[in-house]
Specification:
Radius of gyration: 25 Å
CATH class of the largest domain: Alpha Beta
CATH topology of the largest domain: Spore Coat Polysaccharide Biosynthesis Protein SpsA, Chain A
Number of helices: 11
Number of strands: 30
Number of domains: 3
Strand order of the largest sheet: 20-21-22-29-24-27
Strand content: 25-35%
CATH architecture of the largest domain: Alpha-Beta Complex
Structural class: alpha/beta
Largest sheet: 6 strands, antiparallel
Helix content: 10-25%
């Protein structure tokens, strides 16, 4: 239960509004959306609902409101993908904070709050996940204005979505009394964990319970004060990790020793369910956490039979189903209420009402050390990407694409030799003490143990086919001597 006297939220007057800084949390693997979403390239980097990725859509909501470029807190492995996707939609000055290890949402938000508070502790953080969907952004902005007013007065505000069904995949918020002089904002009576079907139906029937969106609006100073009060160990660890952070190109890397000692705890458990300052803005703007394939079916454009399709799909006598393919022809006949998802290396077929359980399959794959659980055949790197084409005993073939002006690390291998065939563009190859220009339809051989580097000096992407041969072909057989992206492994 939370409560407190009116106006106990802070020192600013109700009519004074602080500047707003979007904070985007980009973590997690989205395993319920396997096989598209995996640890190496999770759901926020995919275009699942619009022409933009979920991350881009999230960032653009702040841009369309006229807010500053966002602060993004993310896994260091994803930093170049995030920077590139934001640049692609015109956001070039985002502050990207790199977590050395995942410690859940409370430490991530605290890190962003410390960074923002260095310049303005009264700035309001608009905290949101990178992978949620919003159908009606103008309505969201109206709700945001209400939340910012309350946050400027010292409240920790969340958005409560008006429920449309007895959903078991979301937590719930009980709406309390209205807060005086701040229209549309209410006290939080209490939070409810994700319920079973019977309890969800009962909550829906009562009419005063809202879905917990996981979005928060709060002054940086308020959040830090609450974290210090309720989770002092977390406060101390994150404060020190921010103080000792390092600049890594355009990124800010938190100190690993101190950040890793922080408790692993969500913002709900750390603060929201304990604070005396919790408030909620009820909303109905088409929010979804896009957490499962049935959620994408709910949000998608349906045909006359209630099907949602994506890609090269052929249906015959199919209804109420979600069918997606990223290349292969997916032909489906005589079924209903199914999820069918095909990627280059995996196919998922599931009953739509079991879509929430896909993560159990992923866990079984991890337990069996199956690489498909976490990685795609297509692997993104800061210089471009590579795609595994085929492999056999002592050989492996890849397609490599290097963006203009980019270069791989100067490296060598102890267990394999490589043969590069350029099929598009012009490559500059360092091999030992020589530099060789390799043009389209030309090739070069790199013996085992030779020092080498691949660069793209031109204005169009370089595409080449790499044939590896040797006793061991793992990605960890790379010894780097120089890397413009500051990678050590």
């Amino acid at each position: 239960m939370v409560g407190g006297e009116e106006g106990s939220g802070g020192t600013l007057e109700h009519g004074t509004v602080s500047p707003v800084v979007p904070v985007i949390l980009s973590g997690g693997a989205g395993s319920r959306l396997w096989p598209v979403s995996r640890g190496s390239f999770p759901k926020q980097f995919w275009s699942l609902l619009t022409n933009f990725t979920l991350l881009q859509d999230t960032a653009l909501r702040g841009q369309s409101k006229g807010l500053a470029d966002p602060v993004v807190v993310c896994n260091g492995e994803h930093r170049f993908v995030i920077a590139e996707q934001l640049r692609d939609v015109g956001i070039g000055d985002a502050r990207i904070i790199l977590e050395p290890v995942g410690r859940n949402s409370a430490p991530a938000i605290a890190a962003a709050a410390f960074v923002v508070a260095e310049h303005n502790p009264d700035a309001v953080l608009w905290v949101m996940a990178a992978d949620a969907a919003i159908e009606d952004v103008p309505k969201l902005h109206v709700a945001l204005d209400q939340a910012v007013m309350a946050a400027s007065a010292g409240y920790l505000v969340t958005f409560g979505m008006t429920p449309t069904r007895p959903e078991t995949g979301y937590g719930y918020i009980e709406q309390g009394a209205a807060i005086q002089d701040i229209p549309g904002v209410y006290r939080v009576s209490h939070f409810v964990e994700k319920p079973d079907k019977n309890k969800a139906a009962a909550l829906l029937a009562q009419g005063r319970y809202l879905w917990n969106s996981g979005m928060f609006v709060v002054r940086a100073a308020t959040f830090l004060s609450e974290i210090e009060a309720y989770e002092p160990e977390l406060y101390a660890c994150v404060k020190e990790s921010v103080k000792n952070r390092k600049t890594d190109m355009d990124f800010e890397r938190l100190d690993p020793d101190t950040f890793s000692k922080s408790p692993d705890i969500s913002v709900d458990y750390a603060v929201a369910e304990r604070t005396e300052k919790a408030a909620v803005v009820p909303g109905c703007f088409g929010w979804s956490d896009v957490g499962s394939w049935d959620a994408l079916w709910e949000l998608g454009q349906k045909d006359a039979q209630g099907n949602v399709t994506h890609g090269n799909v052929l249906l015959e006598d199919v209804s109420q189903s979600y069918v997606r393919t990223d290349g292969l022809l997916a032909a489906v006949m005589g079924v209903d209420n199914l999820v069918v998802v095909a990627t280059q290396d995996a196919v998922l077929v599931a009953s739509k009402d079991r879509a929430q359980d896909v993560k159990t399959l992923v866990q079984r794959m991890k337990n069996n050390n199956m690489p498909e659980a976490d990685t795609h055949r297509l692997t993104y790197r800061p210089w471009g990407y590579y795609e595994a084409l085929t492999a056999g005993h002592r050989f492996q073939v890849k397609k490599i694409v290097v963006r203009p002006g980019q270069k791989l690390s100067l490296q060598k291998h102890y267990h394999r030799a490589e043969h590069w065939v350029v099929v598009e563009g012009t490559a500059l190859v360092t091999r030992g003490d020589e530099q060789v220009i390799v043009r389209e339809n030309e090739s070069i051989y790199l013996p085992l143990g030779s020092l080498h580097r691949l660069e793209n000096p031109g204005r169009m992407p370089v595409t080449l086919i790499e044939v590896q041969s040797g006793s061991y072909l793992g990605e960890d057989d790379i010894v780097r001597f120089d890397d413009i992206y500051s990678r050590t492994v």
